[in-house]
Amino acid sequence: MNAQAKKWRIAIVDDHPMVRERLADVVNSEPDMTVCGEAETRVQALELLAQSHPDIVLLDLNLRDSQGVEAIKDIIAQEPSTHILVISMHDESVFAERAMRAGARGYITKQEATRNVVVAIRKVLAGEPYLSDPLMKKLMGTMVGSSQGPVLASVDLLSDRELQVLRLLGLGRSTRQVANELHLEFSTVETYRTRIKEKLNLPDANALRQYAINWMRTTGKV
What we know:
Layout (H helix, E strand, L loop, with lengths): L7 E6 L3 H12 L4 E7 L2 H11 L3 E4 L2 E2 L2 E2 H11 L4 E6 L4 H10 L3 E4 H16 L4 E2 L1 H11 L5 H7 L4 H11 L4 H8 L3 H14 L5 H14 L4
Parallel strand pairs: 1-2, 1-3, 3-6, 6-7, 7-8
Antiparallel strand pairs: 4-5
C-alpha cells in the first residue's frame, strides 16, 4: 500500500469498552491503518460491516448475543472478502482450532494483543494465517496426537459454548459464576451442564467437575 492509497480499514468487535479503546489506540497509531467502527454485539457487528466494509475485523470470541465461532460464520457469510482476526481470552489450542476452522485468518490472545496485534493484522492482510508461536506449538502437538489425544477426542463432541462452560468449570467456577462470565441465564448453564454430561457419558455433577478439572490440567492450564 503506497502513500496515496487508502488506509486499511479495521473494525473492532468486543463487548468490553476498555479493550476496544486500547485496540483502537494501537491501530490508529499506525500510519496506514484506521479504525472504521466499533461494535459490542454480533447484531451491531453485522450492521457495522454492512455500512463500512472493513478490510479486517478484530473479533472477540465472547459476545453477549453470540458465540464467537458463530459470529465468525455470520461475518463470512455477509462479507466474504473481509478477514477475521480473533482476539480472545482463551489461549487453549482447541479454541484456536475451532476459530480457524470456522474461517478466521488469525488468532491472538488478549494477553499478547497489545504487543503483537499490529504484526498479526499485517500478516492476515498479507494473506497469511497468524498464530503465536506458543499457540502454534500447542496446536501442532494436538494434531500429531500428543498425550492429550484421548481427552481432546471426547471434548470434540462438545459445541463451542459447551466447551466454554467446561473450561470455566475446570477453573473452579460455580454454575452462577459461569452464567455471569458468559452472560447467560442460570438455567441455560444448567442445560449446558446436562448436555455435557450426556455427551461425555458422565454420571453426575461431581464426575463432570472432576472431568473438567482433569481436562484443564491435561491442557496445561492449571
